[in-house]
Amino acid sequence: xxxxxxxxxxxxxxxxxxxxxxxxxxxxxxxxxxxxxxxxxxxxxxxxxxxxxxxxxxxxxxxxxxxxxxxxxxxxxxxxxxxxxxxxxxxxxxxxxxxxxxxxxxxxxxxxxxxxxxxxxxxxxxxxxxxxxxxxxxxxxxxxxxxxxxxxxxxxxxxxxxxxxxxxxxxxxxxxxxxxxxxxxxxxxxxxxxxxxxxxxxxxxxxxxxxxxxxxxxxxxxxxxxxxxxxxxxxxxxxxxxxxxxxxxxxxxxxxxxxxxxxxxxxxxxxxxxxxxxxxxxxxxxxxxxxxxxxxxxxxxxxxxxxxxxxxxxxxxxxxxxxxxxxxxxxxxxxxxxxxxxxxxxxxxxxxxxxxxxxxxxxxxxxxxxxxxxxxxxxxxxxxxxxxxxxxxxxxxxxxxxxxxxxxxxx
Length: 411
Known about the structure:
The protein is of the alpha+beta class. The chain has helices spanning 11-28, 41-48, 50-70, 124-137, 188-192, 240-246, 254-288, 295-315, 320-326, 331-358, 365-379, 383-390, 393-410, and strands spanning 2-10, 82-88, 92-100, 105-106, 140-143, 153-162, 165-178, 200-206, 220-234, 290-291.
């Protein structure tokens, strides 16, 4: 909920605040011919200006009022409060405090929602497909005679020309290109199929209309290509040597591998099915409730999501500037794309909080302690390290309560 609190100070109260501000500032003032705190007010004002006193008085009063408002349990902000000046001069001070508090939630039906979790099945084809991937990871790369085929790795020199002039970023030597990876523009890899070692060829191609470079999108170009070497992947057989290289405990036959792969695929599908099930439940329960989300809350949520994105980019060694340039976008566009997800997160969060209240859900200190012990075992660290990382144990309690609320929705 949005609450605007008007704060006005005038007449004697405002005069007193300015007098106190002058006394404070005067003690630090450096004015020739006067010791700190001894300069007459008219001399101080001539040297520093009246506005200095007004700003100091306003800062003190606004600060005091701000903390007074925050001490009111009915005015606990969920986003950074906004302070907007209305009037500020020698006669009076007037500001508006805009405080966004938790939205009011009216719960609808959140039990017996008629949603079932999808059953998970693993097909033989999926198992075989995954085993093919495993075999590809253990494939040996060796030099090949003959012509380039799909799946081969062609070691090439190439240079691109537009209207007979070489363009930036279109040249490389001894580049390893996997044919079929679709890492180059359409037609490039297909044009290399059939070439032999030492062969040179001109590829007449057209860049896609949605290509990132303005200079090249939709443009006709020529790539001069030379094949220096051809390599092929030799897929291993499911024999004793392969299983020794695989180093998977208890896996020594094809049947063992199939069972392990089936188990892994099933676990992955189970997790995906559970996430979809939970999302459908939350979506349904949230659609049944009433909540008004202020724009400031939505913006704060989007800002938080954007900060999380920057953290992930940082871990990948990318800066915000490089990412925005590469993606040909802006912070504002990315935040706008996040708006729907941000609104969903806010709804789900307050849905669960309302259920916690309605169901009078609790967690005991003993349960919290066990949760922290379990976390320490899971991450193979000490309990002290977990507590140091968490910083505030209330986060653990809140997370546990949220999970309890989710179990209520599941029924």
